Amino acid sequence: LNPLSYYENAWNETYPALLRDRGYYTGQVGKWQFHTYPRDKWNFTSDDEYGWHWRKIAGKMVHVTKKNELDAMEFLKTRPKDSPFLLTVAFFAPHGVDGDPQQYYPQNESFGLYNDVNFTIPLNGINMDESWNRLPSFFNEINEGRKRWHWRYDEPIKAEKMMKNFYRMETEVDKTCGNLIKELSRQGVLNKTLIIFTTDNGNSHGEHGLAGKWFPYQESIRVPLVIRDPRMPSEAHGTTNDEFTLNIDLASTILSAAGVEQPARMQGRDISELYLPSKRNKMLSDPWRKDFFYEFPVREDPFHIPSSNALIEKNFKYIEWLEFNVSQLFDLINDRFEENDLINDAKHSRRISKMKHRLKELAAAAL
Predict the structure, then answer these.
(1) What pTM did the predictor assign?
(2) Which residue has the higher pLDDT, 2 or 21?
(3) Is the Cα dihedral 62, 35, 41, 187 positive or negative?
C-alpha cells in the first residue's frame, strides 16, 4: 500500500473534511509539513510555516509565532458569522531552526523573560554522561538525538541560553493563545467553542544525554493536553485527570462535539467521556483504556533514528527496538526517569512475557 495514496484517498474521512461537509467553515494556520498541502480541502489556509523563526514579509521582519497569530486572527475576523467554524493553529515554535547554531530566536520583547531563572540541564538533575552510557549500545554519536544534544546542551552556558530562549518562545505561544481566546470572547462565541491545546510530541532537554523526540521515553511521548469545553460542569474546571489520552482521540473528540459520527476506521475515543456527566454510563459499560500501544516506524539508518514499539501501562513500560532485537523494561513508579532497565531481572520475566503478548495484540489491532 502506497502511504501517500492512502493519505489522499482517506482525506474524506478526516475530521476537517467531515466537518466541512456538514457546513463548517474550516481553516488551517501554520505548520503542515506532511506530503502535499491540500489547500483546496480547507476554506482558509496560510503558508506552510516551517523551518524559520524570522522572515521578511512585505518588507518587514516578522516572527513565525506572530505570523501564526495574524493568520489566525484573519480567519476569526473574516469567517462567515452564520456558519460554525473549525480552526487549527499549528505553531512552528518552539521547534528549533535545524542546523542553526543558535537554534531558538524569540521575539525581541521576550528577552527580558527568565533572566533571573537558573536552569539545571537536564531538568531531572541526573548526570547526562552517566544516563547516556546506560542507553542500549546502538545509541552512538551519529544518533539524531545525540547530535542535537551537542547542538544545545553539551556546555553549561550554552545549555542555559538554549533553555531560556526555548521557554521564551513557549511563552510567546501561550500569549498568542490568550489573544485568540480574547478574540473569541469579543465575538461572543467563546462559550460556544471547544478549545483543545496540545502538541505532536514531547522533547528531551538533555535527559538520557539526548535532545529532541523520536524515542519512547517519557520526555518524548508525554505531551500537554488542555481542554476548554463550554459543556464541562463547573466542578471540573481547572482539574486534572490521569487517564491515558492519545493523539488518536483528538479527532474523535472533535467529531463528537460537533455531533458527527466517527468513521469505523478511526481508533480514537471521545475524551469528553472523562468529564461530561451525560457520558458516565458509557464509561461504566466500556471503561477507559489502561494501557496503550506506541510505535515509531522509521525508514532510514537505524543508528541515526531507530524504530521502536512500546507498551505503556501506568506502572511499567516495555520497549522493543526493532532493528536491533533489543528490549527494555522500566518501572515508571519507582524509576520515573527510566534509568534502571529491568529487562534482565528474572523476577520480571512473567511480566515481560505478558507485556510482550499485549504489545503484539494491540499492534495487530492498530493495522
Answers:
(1) 0.93
(2) 21
(3) negative
